[in-house]
Amino acid sequence: MKKIKILSGILLLIVAFTFAGCGSSSSQKTSGSDLKAIKDRGTLKVGVKLDVPKFGYKDPKTSKIEGFEIDLSKAVAKKIFGDENKVQFQGVTAKTRGPLLDSGQVDMIAATFTITDERKKSYNFSEPYFTDSVGLMVKKSSGIKDLKGLNEKKIGVAQSATSKQAIQKEAEKVGSKVTFMEFQGYPDIKSALDSGRIDCFSVDRSILTGYIDNSTVVLKEKFSPQDYGVATKKGNDELAKAVNETISEMKKSGELDKLIAKWGIQ
Ligand code: GLU
């Protein structure tokens, strides 16, 4: 009898631990509740670029934020709420976008974010919605025509961007020895180019386009194609699914191509 009591006691403990385990794992996992939290809040918070014309750009005259990635984010809001206006934008840079997603200040990032294996360890990425390449911008007066001409020169790149690694690899291929200077943001790199502290400004060509002026030129060479994806926090599986469904539906219906044409990007 005593044995039976001890055994049933052990059984009860096992059952209790099993349920306690279930409880803690479901409270850690945001999956299944992430979309509900966004719906309850009534707005989708998206990190976008504000200084990349045609992708994510805040017009200084009108203060309006617009571009391909803005329209894409609106399409996700429409999928979630049935209303494309239920979206709130926050400006991000290459350096701030990851931390803003980590801290939950934004639900997703649609900001020229290149999908890499390394980044996939930290974030969920949607299927690609655009492919761009890394480019080089120099002063017209420098006479530099290609990567070979950048031998012994200094290249300005943004911190946390893929550009340094991409250019390093390509420079080695053509036998150019280059050095790098890293900056927090793109306006700083452009100023450094203008003041002669660097000889070249390198990042995705779409981003460079926003900084061309009469004194600068983007070289013809392009390197290291970059697939852009929408990033969401790991565990926010319902949101990741809604984003992916939006993008694949837009691909199928031709809407994505229409948007690319609307914004005049190739
Ligand atoms: N697309 C590149 C990256 O994700 C360039 C940086 C940027 O997007 O600002 O690293």
TrEMBL record:
<dbReference type="GO" id="GO:0005576">
    <property type="term" value="C:extracellular region"/>
</dbReference>
<keyword id="KW-0732">Signal</keyword>
<dbReference type="GO" id="GO:0006865">
    <property type="term" value="P:amino acid transport"/>
</dbReference>
<dbReference type="GO" id="GO:0030288">
    <property type="term" value="C:outer membrane-bounded periplasmic space"/>
</dbReference>
<dbReference type="InterPro" id="IPR001638">
    <property type="entry name" value="Solute-binding_3/MltF_N"/>
</dbReference>
<feature type="domain" description="Solute-binding protein family 3/N-terminal">
    <location>
        <begin position="43"/>
        <end position="265"/>
    </location>
</feature>
<dbReference type="InterPro" id="IPR051455">
    <property type="entry name" value="Bact_solute-bind_prot3"/>
</dbReference>
<dbReference type="Pfam" id="PF00497">
    <property type="entry name" value="SBP_bac_3"/>
</dbReference>
<comment type="similarity">
    <text>Belongs to the bacterial solute-binding protein 3 family.</text>
</comment>
<keyword id="KW-0813">Transport</keyword>
<feature type="signal peptide">
    <location>
        <begin position="1"/>
        <end position="20"/>
    </location>
</feature>
<protein>
    <submittedName>
        <fullName>Glutamine ABC transporter, periplasmic glutamine-binding protein (TC 3.A.1.3.2)</fullName>
    </submittedName>
</protein>
